[in-house]
Amino acid sequence: MQPFRISDIDDTQAPLLDHLIELRGRLMRAFLAFGVAFAVCFYFAGDIFSFLVRPLTEAFPPGQGKLIYTKLYEAFFVEVKIAMFAAFFVSFPVIANQIWQFVAPGLYAKEKKAFLPFLIATPVLFTMGAALAYYVVMPTAFHFFLTFEGQKGGLKLEALPGTGDYLALVMQFILAFGISFLLPVLLMLLNRAGMITRQQCVQARRYAIVDAQEARSYLAHPLLGPRLIEVVRAACAAPGSAEAIFGGIDAIKLRSSLTLFAAVADDPGPFQAGLDRFFDGQPDPETLRLLGHAAR
């Protein structure tokens, strides 16, 4: 019995017209799969939306909270968008398989072995990112957004989210985290293609760490403090100065961000003094204590 192996390349030949006919057939199968999935998802659109709205329901106090729509057709088109959104995920295996069946004959065996694992890993990683957004990020974000309810200037400030706006926000969360989880796939594909090397990724890591910390500090709190101070604490905990820790990367940008936080702190004097010592290459415990005091 011959062991299974992938041939080096498909040696069959076909004229251009045959390739176009095959492409048309595979596109029709992909659209048919999407259409069937859309019909099924549209029938269950109400249940799917109930699932998507659960994080918001749990963020409101029990028995409170509502979703509104201000246009007569808005609720209908929300269900259409939900059905299309869900149908794409349901039909993705069929669509991906049709793409693979069309492209694979033109690939060498080593190229097939290189791309096939990524094709399998893509939906898995995307689902992991979407799950993180749904079960962790969205509940936390919605609880934070609802803290702005209350009395403002003698008037009641109440959250009345619209169905269309809420669905758009949920889709942004899911797509953003799902796509971000695909970054390893993209980097490995670029590495296989010879566009980047492992050494380049290692050298760029310090850029990513600084930028990620800074972005988190800006987005996590209106006053920048509780998250921005984590960058300083992590840096001060390591030996060496800012130059040694970050290799001079974005040092000016980081310092301007910390100076901005010093301006909004209750007592900017100790913070600025600790900040100066940090960038002068003296990240001692006293510096950390002063920075932590200013942040609190």
Estimated share of beta-strand residues: under 5%
The poorly predicted ranges are 221-227, 229-257, 259-266
Assembly state of the chains shown: single chain
**What is the SS-derived class?**
mainly alpha
Describe this structure in words.
The protein is mostly helical and 296 residues long. The protein is built from 13 helices and two strands, in the order H-H-H-H-H-E-E-H-H-H-H-H-H-H-H. The chain has helices spanning 16-43, 45-52, 54-59, 74-103, 109-146, 163-180, 183-192, 198-220, 225-237, 242-246, 251-264, 268-279, 285-295, and strands spanning 150-152, 155-157. Strand 1 (150-152) and strand 2 (155-157) form a beta hairpin. The termini are far apart.
Q: What is this structure, in a nutshell?
A:
This protein is mainly alpha-helical. The chain is built from 13 helices and 2 strands.
Summarize the topology:
Layout: H1 16-43, H2 45-52, H3 54-59, H4 74-103, H5 109-146, E1 150-152, E2 155-157, H6 163-180, H7 183-192, H8 198-220, H9 225-237, H10 242-246, H11 251-264, H12 268-279, H13 285-295
Antiparallel strand pairs: 1-2
